[in-house]
TrEMBL record:
Signal peptide from the UniProt entry: 1-25
Organism, as annotated: Variovorax paradoxus
Keyword list, A-Z: Signal
PANTHER family given in the database record: BLR1237 PROTEIN, TRICARBOXYLATE-BINDING PROTEIN
Keyword Cell inner membrane: no
Top-level taxonomic group: Bacteria
Pfam annotation, one family: TctC
Protein name: Tripartite tricarboxylate transporter substrate binding protein
Family of the protein in this entry: Belongs to the UPF0065 (bug) family.
Keyword Signal appears in the UniProt entry: yes
Lineage: Bacteria, Pseudomonadati, Pseudomonadota, Betaproteobacteria, Burkholderiales
InterPro entries per record: BUG, Bug_dom1
C-alpha cells in the first residue's frame, strides 16, 4: 500500500516526527532539563485547562498540576476553561501575563486543527505560545456495533469497499480528532462511509451503542467499559504498538496499514513572551514530573500514554501537524460550513 503523509499526531503516515512523540524519551533540548530550584516560589501558578472538570483529561491535568507544584515548590491551581474546541483556553493562555505564573494544558485540536479549520482565530498557534513540553498522547480505537459482520480491520475494510455509502460513522463533531482519524482511514483505504457528526462524544457513543450508527473512533479510556460489556466490538487500535490495556486488539499496522496512527497529543505551554529562564525552569520541572514512575503509572491508568518531550520537540510537532492537517483538510474537502 502506498504511504500518504498525514498528521503526525493522529496518523503519522510517512512523517519524520517519530522522535517528537516517543513515549518517555528524554527532553529534546538542554533548556528542558534546567533545574527549577532557582526561581521565586511565593505565588501560585495558574494552569488553564481547556477541558471540562471531571473528565479524564481534567484528571490528567490535575495529576500534572499537583506534581508540578511539588517540584516547583509553589501551588499550581487548575482553572478549567472548556469550550469552543479549546479556543477559549488557548486565547486565555495567549493573553496572560508572561510572568511564569500562567501555563496551559492544550491539545492537538487547539494547536494544530483549529488553525487550519477556523476562519477566524483570536490566537496564532505558531507565535503566541512558549511551548513547554508534551505530556501525553491519547490512543484511539476503531470500534463497531456488535451487529457489524466484521471481526477485524481487514474484514471491515472489505465489507465497506463492497458496500459503498451503506455504512455510517459517528463523531463528536466536524474537525474533532475522532472525525479526522476516520477521514484518514477513509483516505488510506478508499472506503466510502457516511459521516454523522454529533455535538459531543457522549451522544455519538450512545448512538453507536444503540446500533443507530455502526462505527466510530473512540479513545481507549471511554471504550473500556463498553468493550468489557460486549456492547462495542474492537476492530483495531491506531497506535504503533498494541495497548497494554487491550493486548488482544491488533494495530492498524498489523492489519494492512503499516504507517497509520491516531493518537492526539496534549501538552503544556505558556504565553509567548515568557523569558528564557522562566521557560527553562518550567520545562525542567515538567521533565522531573514526567520522569516519576507514579506519574507515568497514573497517566497510563487514565488510558493515556505518557510523554516526556521538551520545548523544541513540542513546538516542532505542532508546527508540522498544522501543515499536515492542512493537507488532510484540503484533500478531504473538510469544512465547518
Amino acid at each position: 500500500m502506498q504511504r500518504r503523509q498525514l498528521p503526525a499526531a493522529l496518523f503519522a503516515l510517512s512523517m519524520a516526527t517519530q522522535g517528537a512523540r516517543t513515549a518517555l524519551a528524554q527532553p529534546s533540548s538542554p533548556s528542558s532539563a534546567a533545574s527549577p530550584a532557582a526561581a521565586p516560589v511565593s505565588r501560585a501558578v495558574r494552569l488553564i485547562n481547556g477541558f471540562s472538570a471531571g473528565g479524564a483529561v481534567d484528571t490528567l491535568s490535575r495529576t500534572v498540576a499537583e506534581r508540578l507544584g511539588a517540584v516547583l515548590g509553589q501551588p499550581v491551581v487548575v482553572d478549567n476553561r472548556p469550550g469552543a474546541s479549546g479556543m477559549i483556553a488557548a486565547d486565555a493562555v495567549a493573553r496572560a501575563a508572561p510572568d511564569g505564573l500562567t501555563v496551559g494544558v492544550l491539545d492537538v485540536g487547539a494547536l494544530a486543527v483549529n488553525p487550519v479549520l477556523q476562519k477566524r482565530l483570536a490566537y496564532d498557534a505558531g507565535k503566541d505560545f512558549a511551548y513547554i513540553g508534551l505530556v501525553a498522547r491519547i490512543p484511539l480505537l476503531l470500534v463497531a456495533h456488535p451487529s457489524v459482520p466484521a471481526a477485524n480491520l481487514r474484514e471491515l475494510t472489505a465489507l465497506l469497499r463492497a458496500n459503498p455509502g451503506t455504512y455510517a460513522y459517528a463523531t463528536a463533531g466536524i474537525g474533532n480528532p475522532l472525525h479526522l482519524a476516520m477521514e484518514a482511514y477513509r483516505q488510506a483505504s478508499g472506503v466510502d462511509v457516511v459521516h454523522v457528526p454529533y455535538k459531543g462524544a457522549t451522544p455519538a457513543v450512545q448512538d453507536v451503542l444503540g446500533g443507530r450508527v455502526p462505527l466510530m473512533f473512540i479513545d481507549v479510556n471511554t471504550s473500556a467499559q463498553h468493550l468489557r460489556a460486549g456492547t462495542l466490538k474492537p476492530i483495531a487500535i491506531a497506535t504503533r504498538e498494541r495497548n497494554p490495556a487491550l493486548p488482544d486488539v491488533p494495530t492498524f499496522a498489523e492489519s494492512g496499514f503499516p504507517a497509520f496512527e491516531a493518537t492526539p497529543w496534549i501538552g503544556l505551554l505558556a504565553p509567548a513572551a515568557l523569558t528564557a529562564d522562566a521557560r527553562a525552569r518550567m520545562a525542567g520541572a515538567l521533565a522531573q514530573v514526567m520522569a516519576q514512575s507514579d506519574t507515568r503509572n497514573r497517566i497510563t491508568a487514565l488510558g493515556f500514554v505518557p510523554l516526556q518531550d521538551g520545548p523544541d520537540a513540542f513546538a516542532k510537532l505542532a508546527s508540522e501537524d498544522r501543515v499536515a492537517y492542512a493537507r488532510l483538510v484540503r484533500d478531504r474537502g473538510i469544512t465547518l460550513d
